[in-house]
Design brief:
This protein is α+β, with helices and mostly antiparallel strands. The protein has two domains: 106 residues, Phosphorylase Kinase, domain 1; 240 residues, Aminoglycoside phosphotransferase (APH), C-terminal lobe (Aminoglycoside 3'-phosphotransferase, Chain: A, domain 2, Alpha-Beta Complex), CATH 3.90.1200. It is 53% helix and 16% strand. It contains twelve helices and twelve strands. Strands 1-2-3-8-6-7 form a six-stranded antiparallel sheet, with helices on both faces. Strands 4-5 form a two-stranded antiparallel ribbon. Strands 9-12 form a two-stranded antiparallel ribbon. Strand 6 and strand 7 form a beta hairpin. Helix 5 runs antiparallel to helix 7, helix 5 crosses helix 11 and helix 11 runs antiparallel to helix 12. It is globular.
Length: 355
Amino acid sequence: MTGSQIEKLRAGLAESGQGDVRLMETHISWVLLGTALAWKIKKPVKLDFLDFTELQARHYYCRRELQLNQRLSPDIYLAVTPVFKEGDRFSFVAGEGEIVDYAVVMRKLDNTLLLSEKLKSGAVTEKFMENLASKLAAFHQGEAPVYNEWDETVALKTFREIGSGREWLAGKMEGYDPAWADGWIRQAESVNELFRWRFEQRISQGFMRDVHGDLHAGNIFCYENNPVIFDCLEFDDSFREIDLLYEIAFLCTDLDFYGYEHLKKAFLSAYQYRLPVILMKEDVLIFKYFCLVRAAIRFHVTSLKGISQELTPAEWESVAAYAKLAQKYSAQLLYLTEHYIHFEKEVFRFEDTFD
C-alpha cells in the first residue's frame, strides 16, 4: 500500500464507527489506532535487514509477528486480517474487492502507560521491575536453546560505522569526543578475542534462545504492577536468537539512560534469582560488553536520523547522552578487563553488574 491509500483506509475506518482513527508511522510500518483496536500494516520497503516489497512476504511476516508476540501477549495480538480494495475504497470487510495487503490486529493500549513514559515521570516502582523480571525469566526459561555459532561481526560492524562518521557527529553535539569511538572498537575487539571461548561456552550451555530481541522501555506497558511486553522482532530470526544477557542488557541500558540504578538493581536481582545467567566472573564482563553494544547501537540509530531530518536540540541531547553512556560502559569494561588480565584470580561479584 501507499501512504495515500493508508489515509483512505483510515478515513473509511473512521466512517464505519471506529471513532477518531489516528495514524502513527515508523520507517517500516503504519499503525492505525481506533477506539479499541489497532491495525499494523507493513510498508513495502526493502532495507539491509528486511524485504517487505512483495505482498506474500508481508503476509508471511504479519503471521510471524502474530505468532511470536502471542508468546508474551496473547491477549494483545489478536489476528491477521486482509486489506480489501474495491474501486477507490479500502477496508477490512471481507468480500469487498481484491486483497491488497494484510494487517496485524491488536488490542489498543494506552501509550501514556509505556515504561519509557513512566520512567520519565519517575512513576516506576521496584515491585514492577521485579514482576517484569519474573515474567521475562519465565518466558526465557520456556524457550528452547538455540545452538548457533557465535558471531561478533554485527556488533563490530556497528562500532566501525560509528567511527566512520565521528567527525560529522562531533560538529553536531557538545561534549562528544570523536576519539571515543576508537576506544569502543578496541574494547569490542579485545572482549571478543579474550572471551570468545566463554561466548561459545554459553551457547553450548543453553544461554542463547529465541527471545524478544528488542526489549527496550518503549516496548513494555505498565498496567499497575502488571508488565505487558509487545513488539518483538519478527523480520530476522538472528536478531531474536541471542544470549539472554544481551536480551536483558537493552532494558538495563534504558534504566541507566534514565538514571534509575535502583530499578536496574531490583530487576537484575530478581531475574538472576529466577534464572541464573551470570555464573562466572567472565559473565560480568560479557554483560558489560553487551551494555556497551546496546548503548552504541542506540547512539548510532538516533544519530542517523540527523542525516535525513533536522533533529531538535532535545533530540541531539539524547544522542549525546547515549554516547556518554556508551563511554561510561567502555571505561567500566576497560577497568574490568585490565583487572581480569593482571589479577586473574580476582573474583568479580554479581553486584558489579549494577554499576
